[in-house]
Design brief:
This protein is α/β, with parallel strands linked by helices. Helices cover about 40% and strands about 20% of the residues. The protein folds into two domains: about 160 residues, Zn peptidases (Aminopeptidase, 3-Layer(aba) Sandwich), CATH 3.40.630; about 290 residues, Alpha-Beta Plaits, CATH 3.30.70. The strands form five sheets. Strands 8, 9, 12, 13, 14 and 15 form a six-stranded mixed sheet that branches. InterPro entries: Peptidase_M20, Uncharacterised_RocB.
């Protein structure tokens, strides 16, 4: 059986195990890997060199499959892919075919599903397989598996190969964050020197004749906003301040804001997008909401979180001033038409980082506050671990609880960072960056000679990936800043950042 046949055989077996992200189905990857481990004579002779690594404090009890192939020396290549897929709701009434490439191809050929011109061309060529995960993580993972199989048959080769499959890439990267510990343990136990990590993901081509590889991965932060207004009946609206109005103003000034577009090398980030916006009422009533919350996604290449959040804070202050000005104009018009008077408005813009508010309360309330809020955080984390509470809802509960201790009851915008944080990474940050560039140059020459296709290097993968946790080069100032404003830092085991 040649390499292509082995890749396809492994892929068809892998697809049979449904591994929808964020569900217990992710554990099905173990069914596939147990059989695959058993099929490799080298691993049968060395059972201690493969296994499943527990993801710590994971409510879904997911594990990371891994296998180590030892050659000569300590230099080690890590071959990484993720084992989870998104669900198949987009397949509609044809969900049963999502993991059956042959049947799905027949369905397409019969014309039962409308296809665009490019997909129809690929279908008619007979050179493509279709299905969830086929041209993504499972297809890429099976390339790694097949290469591992080949090298396992060699009596000698230089270096070592470590194969890892991580769950949860499509969600919160719990697999990769735990894989950092696995990599450390294997390094210490077997004396490994990690020199290269290869992550398989789909790629976009600018030129059909050039394969795209990425030598970095975009960063992502998720600023989370909690706006506290002033409660009032809707019939006396000028007595209050609507947090929905204020948060809306912040959204309008930041959504798609080109100030946050970054360019580094040949990569450009898209602008920010808001992913959630809601008042914090549990039931309907005729009063203004007291609280409103929202969070956004900001992608970055070189800008540290502090620079991004400082700009968001300044924009929020501008929005606050504009809302107050608009309210005053509206109130002036209202008073010109009625004898009703609710007094003068004396709102002042007030925007704080979560870390600032926490420290103000700590200074006023002392260790009792620190103890009580830590206990509350722990309760929230236990609920999150059990799947009873989402991490985002937990973040809002934590911010709201903290505000209960705050003596200043005036309207305020609170800004924090919600987990997870994805640092930007690039090989240029490493001492070995030049060596990697030379390797890519040699691969390009080899690819052109063997296949007629060259290699185009994109400086960053903008789809957000587990590679954010493959290195971390931030300085202490930025680590401290993240720590001060990242919710749940130090309570839940999320990050192990070493500059």
């Amino acid at each position: 059986m040649n390499r292509a046949d082995r890749i396809e055989k492994n892929l068809l077996n892998y697809l049979k195990e449904i591994t929808h992200t964020g569900t217990e189905l992710e554990r099905n990857n173990e069914n596939f890997f147990k059989k695959w481990f058993d099929s490799i004579p080298y691993l049968n002779r060395n059972p201690e060199l493969c296994g499943f690594y527990d993801i710590e404090k994971d409510c879904l009890k997911r594990r990371i499959p891994w296998a180590l192939l030892k050659g000569q020396g300590n230099r080690t290549i890590v071959m990484l892919h993720h084992t989870d897929t998104v669900d198949i709701d987009d397949f509609g009434k044809y969900k049963e075919y999502a993991y059956k490439p042959s049947e799905l191809e027949e369905l397409f050929l019969e014309g039962k599903v409308e296809l665009d011109e490019a997909t129809r061309k690929d279908l008619n060529s007979g050179e493509w397989l279709f299905g969830r995960g086929v041209s993504d993580m499972k297809g890429g993972g099976c390339i790694h598996l097949s290469l591992f199989e080949e090298y396992s048959l060699r009596e000698e080769f230089s270096g070592n190969i470590l194969l890892i499959g991580v769950p949860d890439e499509e969600n919160l990267s719990a697999g990769m964050r735990s894989a950092v510990n696995l990599l450390r343990d294997l390094k210490e136990k077997h004396g490994l020197e990690y020199v290269l990590l290869l992550n398989v993901e789909p790629h976009d081509r600018i030129d059909e004749n050039n394969i795209t590889i990425y030598d970095g991965s975009v960063g992502k932060i998720m600023p989370i906003f909690l706006v506290r207004g002033k409660l009032a009946h809707v019939g006396q609206i000028y007595k209050g301040l609507n947090p929905v109005n204020l948060l809306s103003a912040i959204v309008r000034k930041t959504e798609l804001n080109p100030e946050f577009i970054e360019k580094a090398g040949n990569t450009v980030t898209p602008p920010p997008a808001w992913l959630y916006f809601k008042d914090r009422k549990d039931v309907y009533d005729v009063s203004l909401p007291l609280l409103a919350g929202g969070y956004m996604s900001v992608l970055s290449l070189n800008k540290p979180p502090k620079e991004i959040l400082d700009r968001l804070k300044a924009i929020s202050e501008e929005a606050f001033k504009e809302v107050i000005s608009d309210m005053e104009l509206s109130y002036e018009k209202y008073r010109s038409l009625t004898d009703m008077d609710y007094g003068e408005m004396d709102w002042k813009p007030n925007v704080k980082y979560y870390g600032e508010i926490y420290n103000e309360i700590l200074e006023e309330k002392g260790e009792l506050f620190k103890k009580e809020i830590a206990e509350f955080q722990k309760e929230l984390e236990e609920k999150i671990d059990k799947g009873e509470l989402t991490r985002i809802d937990g973040a809002y509960h934590l911010m709201e609880k903290t505000l209960e201790y705050y003596s200043d009851l005036s309207p305020v915008v609170v800004i924090a960072l919600a987990p997870p944080y994805y640092p930007s990474t690039n090989n240029a940050m490493l001492d070995s960056g030049r060596e990697i560039n030379e390797l890519i140059f040699e691969l390009d020459k080899y690819a052109r000679k063997q296949t007629g296709n060259g290699i185009y290097t994109q400086n960053y993968f903008t789809g957000i990936s587990d590679l954010s946790y493959a290195m971390f080069t931030a300085n202490k100032e930025n680590i401290d800043y993240i720590q001060d404003n990242m919710l749940f830092w130090g309570i839940c085991i999320i990050y192990h950042l070493i500059p």
